[in-house]
Amino acid sequence: MAGSLGLTPESLKASGRSSENLSLLILQGKIKRDPEGYETELQLIYKQFKTSVDLFQQQAALSFSSVGGIGSDPSVSKDLGDRAMFLAHVTPFYPKQLSEFPAQLTDLLRTSCLAMPSGLRNHVAQALILLMNRKSLVIEDLLALFLDIQTLGDKNLRALAFGHIVQTIRKMSITDPKHKSLQKIVISMLEQEDEAKAKRALATLCALHKKKIWLGDKNERVAIAICEACFHSSPRIMISALRFLLDYENIDDDDDSDAESDDDEDNKKIDQVVINRQAVYKANNKGTSSSKKKKQAKLQRAVKSIKRKQRSSSENTTSTFSPLNHLNDAQKFAERLFSRLQTIKGTGERVETRLMMIKVIARTIGLHKLHLLSFYPFLQNYAMPHVKDVTQILAAAVQSCHDGVPSDAVEPLFKQIVNQFVHDKSRPEAIAVGLNVVREMCLRIHDLMTEELLQDLALYKKSHEKAISAGARSLIALFREINPSLLVKKDRGRPGATVAKPKQYGESNVFSNVPNVELLQESDNESGSDGDQDDDDVELPIGDDVEQELIPDDCGCKDEAEEDSNDGDDMNNTEDDSDIDTSIGGDEDEEVNDSDEANTDSENEDIESEEDDGEASDSSVEENGNKEKAKGKKRKIVDFDANLLSADTSLRALKRFAEAKNEKPSFDESDGILSNEDFQKIKELQAKKEAKIALARKGFKVPDSDQLSKKRVDPAKLEAHIRHKLTKEQRLELVKAGREDRGKYKSKAAVKQKKTGGSSNKQKEHRKNMPLAAIRSKAGKSKRTKKMKNSISGSQFRGRKAWK
To answer: A Gene Ontology CC term for this entry (predicted)?
Structure first.
């Protein structure tokens, strides 16, 4: 072949080089060191490449097979692949001589990819990737081609092309204008009717969106395209899009961990649990052992509740990246998907597909607070205990409820859930699920519950089943916060607390200021009077060992059992509040109460001395004195004039304080600009406030409607505390897990036989000589037993006769 190209072996030998020395790898290294000295060899190999392409195309026309490729001469494909890789490596050194090579190689893969064997396709694809990395090609020229070759059925080639597309777009700058053109190419391929191409385009969009490359408001067309894939003509594309929308919040970001910079990791701060130092001291050093255990258990629950809230707040951030948030017309999307759900109901579509569509519709309704009133009667067909995956359907029903939906539209579904699940003849698992669903629906729509129904459901708190009693108590705890007037008097909680007013339909809280800015103002006011206020608080990092650091080991297992009885939030801690209701600052409360009683007694004494005359006042004083003696307290004699003067001065002090407060410029009157330090301080003060609320055991805080709409309802939480029947394999696993620390069972005889060494101390005691007294007593005892046996063995005893 060299002779036909004008290069004979004699001419090569005359120049000091032979054909045997023309190894491509060796020549490649020499060309990189001296490009100008090897232009002749380059032209030779380039012409050989063109000849190999022509020969390959001729053989492909003669014997073509889409599965095995060229079967006549495999050396042709091998030579073609080797020369293609060689030319791709040396193209940057000869830009003029090889200016047409990238286009020729691209056309070869585009036109003859079906005829190529698997090895040749991989070599050509790797050569194109190398040309792209060397800036000889751009990704716009190869994106459509690499998406097409992924549909050939070659796994290695598909993984190579897919990984290269993702990594190339990932390395691009965020502000690069090429993103729009690339998105247009992929989205246009997704809209095609070809199922294979649309599937690869959807996989590319989902991967780039999951890795947060095509994410945000600038790339909202990608999120909209993923959502629109739910209406593709191919059922597989529709199922893939639905599955991605549902599983997006559970995606682990392990793949893109290397993309995160070290600065981001350094900026991540450990959340702090701010606990009062005095509370920690009293929990460990004040009171009796039983009161210490209660205080320690309360402190432990407070830390866990704060950890749970902070963990849930961090988990809710992933929902903001969901493609459903970027819908331009969410109402139209939900209506279209619901109409398609109704049309495929009788077409024999799989139940899993319909269930995924129901969950996506419910997620969209809850996230955007839509009104799709026909969706709730549709769910009534599935809200029955015997339906498969009924907990997922009930979770979708809960997710679709929000404060903007009228209660009349949801009331039939709500009543059916109560009638089907919560009754005496139902299984305990169904009753527990029904109570939890009722609680979650009433948390979102307060007007669903009536007084009679709530009182009937509250009676399940006496059930012996843990799941049922926990669900009923959580329902009682909810209505203590939102509408305690519906409860019986004994279930309303402590008297004297602020009575909550139920919200009316359409009522919403509108912030006129920065949320929690009053905490910053209060801290500024207190900082002037107390300079060392921060010394009373302890900041504890959130970790698994926080409870062990705060609580000693002798806290008891009872508190852990109480903690385990909770279903994941603070709503279940209602009936047990009477046992652990003593606050950690209980000693101070008693002192305050004592001082208040003393002041009220002195005021009563002054009023009685002013109104009544001598005898009447003396009698009243004697009666009050007797009461004080009965209480074990001494009465203080206070002058009326002095008391009146102190009251007058206290009133004047209050007036001066009010005037000074009015004269001080408020936050609204000032500039109203907060710095980053101010917002950080507001977060710290909010953490302290939540810690105090958790320690005071004042019930749970009803979450905002926006928080409920962003949070995904987990069907597993609706089955809290339900013990499912274990299979035989699961029981065997538990049995084997309990035998790990134990050795193999052996009898005592086997252990004695394998024993090495001397005899034991017990065996040595048997060989010792007995004392003389013991020998005599033993001999006497043996004589008596022998004598008794001899006396009985002679004649059988028949009993004493009655007449003798």
So the answer is: nucleolus
